[in-house]
Amino acid sequence: MAEGQSPLAQFEIKTLVPIEMFGVNASFTNSSLFMVLTVITVSLFLIGGMRRSAMIPGRWQSMAELSYVFIANMVKDNVGSEGRPYFPFIFTIFMFILVGNFWGMMPYSFTFTSHIAVTFAMAFFVFIGVTIIAIAKHKLHFLTFFMPPGVPMVMAPLLIPIEIISYLSRPISLSVRLFANMLAGHTLLKVFAGFIISLGVAAGWLPFVFVVALTGLEFVIAFLQAFVFAILTCLYLNDALHLH
Amino acid sequence: MPQLDVTTFAPQLIWLTITFTAMFFIMWKIAVPKISDALETRQMRLEDNLKKAEDLKREAEATLAAYEKALADAGAQAHNDIQAIQEKLHEAAAKEEAELGEKLDAKLAKSEKAIAAEVDKAMESVRDVAIDVAAEAVQRLTGEAPAGDNISKAVDTVLSDKA
Q: Is A133 in contact with A90 (CB distance < 8 Å)?
């Protein structure tokens, strides 16, 4: 396949405005553009929806309130009342990933969550933040997290390394899950879309049907991955606040 | 694979930091307070209205109870009043009846006296007439007038025999 028609070409970072600060490349790229679009969209959606703040909400206000209540319940159910201070952060993560994924569903757009650098940065930030919260709250007692209560001492040499590895792999699993889902979905769409052209009028309708179905599936995945990222953040936060 | 191009990491991470931080502050300071205020206001309004409804219901029940009590009181009062008035009327009627009886008795007595007087008077005139008739009869039979005293004495004797 020619360059630009490769299924991976859609993930290329293209510099729009070259910027260099302190010798570091800080260029405004297509990725940056969609991040900014995401921030603007979410802000307009929420603040615009609440501009009247009616006692009986209209459709727009209902959607804004629904997104808030959805995450508020998620935090309440998974973390409890102690999770309240962290709600704005989890809400931001959810809306940022969700709307970023949705923007990526636009033809010719760019999906910034399909880049491991971005997803890993977010996952790593969550991981570090959660660990700091845990240590600040429980001090050295935090180390008992790696030795679940009720386990015989004989198991400790085996169990503790496993627990530590599973804890350290959290940011990796969290970031790879989102990145891989986005990458695979968008690649698959592109591959099937390519088949439509190469199979021509005779059999092209078959991959076309696939692409239509896959697009629907991708919208579900776009939501689901944002949901999974947010709920795992809640669970990690719950571990940090309550240990086991 | 463009994802593994390390040279793109710096701009991605820098812009991720900028946009995510900006969005976090927008959410934290503007959007989240706005929505939570709206939800809380609605929740409070709902609770307030429910409480108001409860209060009104209680008030209505109190009013109903007061109304029923007033109704019962009024009924009892009316009953008492009717009884009192009835007693009074009975008393007044009895008194009037007694007065009327007395008056009638007095009138009756007076009438009886008058009748008795009339009867006496009549009796008196009957004696005179009897004396006159007897004197006339004696004169026609005997041809001479009787001595005045004899006739009246005879009449008196007859009348007193009859009486």
A: no
List, for residues B103-150, the tens digit of each pLDDT value: 999 999 999 999 999 988 888 888 888 888 888 888 888 877 777 677
pLDDT one-digit tens code per residue, A165-179: 999 999 999 999 999
Average pLDDT over every residue of B11-38: 91
Query: Taking CB atoms and an 8 Å cut-off, how many pairs form between chains A and B?
Result: 132
Residue B94 has a CB neighbour count (10 Å cut-off) of 10
In the block, tokens 């297509």 appear at: A30
> Does A155 reside within a domain?
yes
Chain A CB contacts of B34 under 8 Å are 46-47, 50, 53
Q: Which of A26, A64, A122 sits opposite B11 (nearest CB)?
A: A26
- pLDDT-derived band at A2, boundaries 50, 70, 90: very low
pLDDT digits over B17-28, tens only? 999 999 999 999
CA distance A214 to A196: 14
Residue A181 burial (C-beta neighbours within 10 Å; 0-12, 13-18, 19+): buried
**Positive or negative: CA dihedral A166, A171, A174, A178:** negative
Nearest-neighbour CA in chain A from B19: distance (Å): 6
Q: What is the CA radius of gyration of chain B?
A: 63
Is position A4 within any domain?
no
Asked if residue A3 is part of any domain, the answer here is no
* Per-residue model confidence as pLDDT tens digits over A16-35: 888 888 888 888 888 999 99
With left for phi above 0 and alpha for psi between -120 and 50, is residue A139 left, alpha or beta?
A: left
Amino acid at B32: V
Q: Is residue A1 part of a domain?
A: no
Whether A117 and B12 lie within 8 Å, measured CB to CB: yes
- Which tokens belong to A202? 């005779």
ipTM of model: 0.89
CB contact under 8 A, A121 and B16: yes
Q: Residue B82: which residues within 8 A CB-CB, separation 6 or more?
A: none
**A39, A47, A112 member nearest B30 (Cβ):** A47
Interchain CB distance below 8 Å, B1 and A47: no
Using a CB-CB cut-off of 8 Å, the residues of chain A touching B1 are 8, 11
Phi, psi angles (nearest 5°) of residue A103: -60, -35
What domain count does chain A have? 1
